[in-house]
Design brief:
There is one protein chain. By secondary structure, the protein is mostly helical. It has a single domain, classed as Na+/H+ antiporter like fold (Up-down Bundle). It has 20 helices and no strands.
């Protein structure tokens, strides 16, 4: 048994290495490549190609556990970038842009869920999938495009921070509702437990920052990585045990490190660990994806890509104007926020645990197809952002001159 699991893990890592290399070679985002790798060699892969079976990796406990660690470390690093002081200083403008972003994009999600016949829980899940931008993909795209020093990046990153806060509440509620089988009593109990746990954790992270240097400080790199990763995974596991989101718990652990002297060391030593486990998380999503089911939701997928791209462009443009940016830079805000990714897939993993068979099969399939499409659309939006924003500016001027 051990040898089979080790062999599967080796195949998974090797396939991920090849998929990532191909994506990098063609200057494409790696997340869709990792998901595609899981689909290609997973249990739903084509039975054979030239009499060779492609079903090389199963949805084993090893891969599933590694995927959970990937979620935890991804969110830990988002928390690491979270500056409470900036949030407090810009709270009015951030509240305005966050409100615009939530109202516009959540409304589109609700409309999609209702239009395609989902019940209340299904609508809630579809809304979560399409609402939040991918912090990981957006940040990387901004870095690659050299936008981080531009005025529009402040609006984009501020919007991401507000989305992270909203999604923290959302995931706690959804984890309780879906995990509780949708019953009001069990869901309410789990929600209360989740909020008590996460509130206590947030308080400990905020007031305990001054002790982080002391607790985690060690000259040995090996011990430092073990302490950081061990603590983050332990807290994530504790969160799951009480019905809270392990992702949100990890986010709060990350906030405890922000502003300490350890941030640079975390980024230099723990990033490779995060990237390996994050790749396995996206790979695991692919393992559970049946392309035939994704094909069954092609209409929902097509409508969602068009509608939610337009919604993000509109809300981003409005947010840029709130910050006093000109039309071209405001358009770039919308372009920078188009990509969806890790949070949408986290919602998909929650949907996969639903007792409702329709939700359990359709929502994860839709989420995976949606993330693959939107990661490409979002990356291309930033890559050609200068041209697109200039075209939008000229179009606006043309309309005003009529």
């Amino acid at each position: 048994m051990a040898e089979a699991l080790l062999l599967e893990l080796g195949v998974a890592l090797s396939v991920l290495a090849v998929a990532g290399s191909v994506a990098r070679y063609f200057d494409q985002p790696v997340i869709p490549a990792y998901i595609a790798a899981g689909i290609l060699v997973g249990p739903h892969a084509p039975t054979s190609v030239a009499t060779i079976s492609l079903q090389l990796v199963s949805e084993s406990a090893v891969v599933e556990t590694a995927a959970e660690v990937g979620i935890v470390l991804l969110l830990f690093f988002l928390g690491l970038e979270f500056d409470v002081g900036t949030l407090v200083r810009n709270r009015r403008r951030l509240s305005a842009v966050g409100g615009i972003d939530l109202a516009v994009n959540a409304a589109v999600g609700v409309a999609l869920g209702v239009a395609f016949g989902f019940g209340p829980i299904g609508v809630l899940l579809v809304t979560g999938v399409v609402y939040i931008s991918s912090s990981a993909i957006v940040t990387k795209a901004l870095t690659d495009a050299g936008w981080l020093a531009n005025p529009e990046s402040e609006v984009i990153l501020g919007t991401l921070v507000v989305e992270d806060l909203v999604i923290a509440v959302y995931l706690a509620v959804v984890a309780a509702v879906v995990g509780g089988g949708g019953t009001v009593g069990s869901a309410l109990t789990t929600v209360v437990q989740s909020f008590v746990f996460l509130t206590a954790l947030a308080g400990a992270a905020h007031f305990g920052t001054e002790y982080v240097d002391r607790v985690f400080g060690t000259e040995a790199d090996e011990l430092f990585v073990l302490r950081v990763v061990g603590t983050t995974v332990l807290v994530g596991g504790a969160a799951l045990s009480v019905g809270a989101s392990e992702a949100v718990a990890a986010f709060f652990v990350g906030t405890a490190f922000h502003g300490t002297d350890l941030v640079h060391r975390v980024e230099s030593l723990v990033v490779p660990v995060r990237d390996v486990f994050a790749a396995l998380f996206f790979f695991a999503v692919g393992l559970g994806t049946d392309l035939l089911v994704v094909a069954d939701v092609w209409l929902l997928l097509a409508v969602a890509v068009v509608a939610t791209t337009a919604a993000k462009l509109a809300s981003g443009y409005a947010s840029g104007r709130v910050y006093g940016l000109d039309e071209r830079r405001s358009a770039r805000v919308g372009l920078g926020l188009v990509a969806r990714g890790e949070f949408s897939l986290i919602v998909a993993t929650l949907a996969a645990t639903s007792a409702n068979p329709t939700i359990r099969t359709v929502v994860p399939a839709f989420a995976v197809g949606y993330v693959i499409a939107m990661s490409f659309v979002g990356s291309l939006s930033v890559q050609y952002g200068a041209t697109l924003s200039e075209s939008f500016k000229n179009w606006r001027r043309g309309r005003e001159s009529l």
